[in-house]
Specification:
Layout (H helix, E strand, L loop, with lengths): L17 E6 L4 E6 L9 E3 L1 H6 L7 E4 L11 H16 L15 E7 L2 E6 H8 L6
Length: about 130
């Protein structure tokens, strides 16, 4: 199944169809077809945001395609979706087991957030009882 990337614009959940990159030396924004991989210095845009794109004053926008259309789902996408629905419907997955309780000989001595300090009773007695030291 191909990965579906979302539009980079805040709060937009549409599928990306174009990639925007900048050439700062030439003051140019280049809007082209969706890149094969997400790059750190490029932005994926949906068709609505790709059509509405404007550049700052003094910059030029180069559009490598006249319009960008969201492609229909491929057969691989539909097959993967059907398989996921089938697996979810089976309900065969076991729930995460409950965390095991500590033995009675272990006590919690301190806690910070999600971290706990546990001490075994034998360690607690030897730390407080000088007769048990060798």
């Amino acid at each position: 199944m191909r990965s579906v990337r979302q539009c980079s614009r805040t709060a937009c959940t549409q599928t990306a169809v174009a990639t925007l990159t900048y050439v700062y030396a030439d003051s140019t924004a280049v809007l082209g077809p969706l890149a094969q991989r997400a790059e750190p210095h490029s932005y994926d845009l949906c068709s609505v945001h790709a059509e509405r794109l404007t550049a700052p004053r003094g910059w030029e926008v180069v559009r490598l395609q006249p319009e960008f259309v969201t492609p229909p789902p491929s057969k691989d996408d539909l097959s993967a979706l059907a398989e996921a629905v089938r697996e979810a419907g089976r309900g065969g997955r076991a729930a995460d087991p409950a965390p095991a309780a500590e033995p009675a000989s272990v006590t919690e001595t301190a806690r910070r957030g999600h971290l706990r300090v546990l001490r075994a009773e034998s360690q607690a007695r030897s730390a407080t009882d000088p007769t048990e030291m060798s």
